[in-house]
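Question (not urgent): is this output format expected?
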Amino acid sequence: MQPPTLLIVDDDASVRDLLAVILARAGYIALCAGDGLEAAEQLRRHQVDLVLTDVYMPGEDGLFVLRAANELRIGVVVFTAERDAEFDPLRSAQQLGASAVLRKPFDPDLILKTVRACLAMGSKDGAIRAA
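Got this back:
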């Protein structure tokens, strides 16, 4: 049986690389994309079990990625470092059906715990809130 495939979407290569290493060491297959359009292309080309995406990226953002994954019934973990009192992008992500939301910086244990929980609940069957 093939391990789950996860798509990591972030415009910051260091964040993508860090998450890819954490997830690969835990036995997952990690694909990466640098923006929303690249993520949508990866979703068309590969069987993805879960998406992890930043909110703010140039071009198409993480909410675009969330909508694209929702259409395919793929769970999505949305994360951001943004802490705007006027607009909370994680609240918007929750309203749009994110499986889980996280704030950066996050630790590897929290990422793995969140990924395991999202994969265990299946695609779009519920939601996890870990801020």
